[in-house]
Backbone:
């Protein structure tokens, strides 16, 4: 009979204890590492970043370098029959007049994200950072 058997200690008890202590921590770490990118995707695209990358060239601070009367300021939007973010999203996606549509460039959810950003900025009178 060896020492382990004489002491009544079962070597597998140590492994069970370690397993019970470490497994929850490992699972939590795996979930957290895997959940971070999924949460970023669920949040959707960043409208401000998309605007900066694809729209600000013509619409600096809500203006319009091509057509002065077609700015993204609230008064101009309303004067042009644009009363909500959904209409802005439609214009961003398919275009209107001289402005081409950017739906493919902005990607899934991009026109809506940009529209939400533009509408929010228009409500705040396009504050400068």
Residues:
């Amino acid at each position: 009979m060896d020492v382990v058997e004489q002491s009544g200690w079962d070597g597998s008890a140590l492994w069970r204890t370690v397993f019970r202590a470490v497994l929850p921590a490992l699972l939590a770490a795996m979930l957290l590492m895997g959940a971070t990118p999924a949460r970023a995707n669920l949040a959707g695209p960043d409208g401000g970043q998309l605007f900066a990358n694809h729209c600000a060239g013509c619409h600096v601070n809500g203006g319009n370098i091509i057509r002065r009367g077609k700015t993204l300021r609230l008064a101009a939007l309303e004067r042009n029959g644009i009363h909500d973010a959904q209409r802005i999203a439609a214009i961003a996606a398919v275009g209107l007049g001289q402005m081409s549509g950017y739906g493919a460039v902005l990607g899934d959810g991009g026109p809506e994200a940009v529209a939400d950003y533009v509408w929010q900025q228009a409500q705040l009178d396009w504050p400068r950072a």
Summary: Helices lie at 3-7, 11-43, 47-54, 74-79, 85-94, 103-106, 110-123. Residues 35-40 have pLDDT under 50 and may be disordered. The first helix runs from residue 3 to 7. The CA atoms of residues 73 and 125 lie 6 Å apart.
